[in-house]
């Protein structure tokens, strides 16, 4: 898998250091696909944004007038989660947009590092690009189990553990 170079210009150290984190998280999420991409390049866009822009996009595309931590816009169709409809050429998976302010506040509230939270949200966003969802309880169970397993490989604790308590 080949990922394009990332241009990260935000001054916050956690954001500046996330190019390696993004590459590792994307690779881990892509490994959940059952398909062989035959060595084709995989592309996706990640925008590290502010709360206002994310709120505007969330309002426009999801009819929710508030900022959220991550938005994903898949470019490929999926027959089922992890089963992409492959077209010839490079695989453009889609776009992920992260809201700096929301991510920062959530990391602080959850008493976790910014890097760990970003890793989780990037994995979460890529899984959305691969057709996973959490609207229905059954879908959420599948997606969250996958996230927990992937995060464990990064040495990151289950982000959903506090919800079960």
Automatic annotation (TrEMBL):
**Biological process annotations from GO:** rRNA processing
Q: What is this protein called?
A: Endoribonuclease YbeY
The record ties this protein, via HAMAP family, to:
Endoribonucl_YbeY
Per UniProt, subcellular location reads as:
Cytoplasm
**Signal sequence extent:** none
Native organism: Candidatus Terasakiella magnetica
Q: How is the cofactor bound?
A: Binds 1 zinc ion.
Q: Which PANTHER family match?
A: ENDORIBONUCLEASE YBEY, CHLOROPLASTIC
Family the entry assigns: Belongs to the endoribonuclease YbeY family.
Function per UniProt = Single strand-specific metallo-endoribonuclease involved in late-stage 70S ribosome quality control and in maturation of the 3' terminus of the 16S rRNA.
According to the lineage, what is the superkingdom?
Bacteria
Under Gene Ontology molecular function, one entry of this record is: zinc ion binding
Q: What class of enzyme is it?
A: hydrolase
This protein's cofactor list reads: Zn(2+)
Q: Where does Zn(2+) bind?
A: 124, 128, 134
Stretches of the chain forming a coiled coil according to its record: none
> What is the name of the gene encoding this protein?
ybeY
Q: Which UniProt keywords apply?
A: Cytoplasm, Endonuclease, Hydrolase, Metal-binding, Nuclease, Ribosome biogenesis, rRNA processing, Zinc
Query: Hydrolase among the record's keywords?
Result: yes
E.C. code: 3.1.-.-
Tell me which GO cellular component terms the UniProt record holds.
cytoplasm
């Amino acid at each position: 898998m080949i990922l394009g170079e990332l241009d990260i210009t935000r001054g916050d150290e956690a954001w500046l250091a996330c190019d390696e984190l993004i590459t590792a998280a994307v690779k881990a999420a892509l490994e959940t696909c059952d398909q062989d991409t035959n060595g084709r390049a995989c592309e996706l866009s990640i925008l590290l944004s502010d709360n206002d822009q994310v709120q505007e996009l969330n309002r426009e595309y999801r009819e929710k007038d508030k900022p959220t931590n991550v938005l994903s816009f898949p470019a490929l169709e999926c027959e089922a989660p992890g089963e992409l409809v492959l077209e010839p050429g490079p695989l453009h998976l889609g776009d992920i947009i992260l809201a700096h302010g929301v991510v920062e506040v959530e990391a602080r509230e959850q008493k976790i590092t910014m890097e760990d939270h970003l890793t989780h949200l990037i994995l979460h966003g890529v899984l959305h690009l691969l057709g996973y969802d959490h609207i229905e309880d059954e879908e959420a169970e599948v997606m969250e189990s996958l996230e927990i397993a992937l995060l464990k490989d990064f040495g990151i604790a289950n982000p959903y553990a506090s919800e079960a308590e």
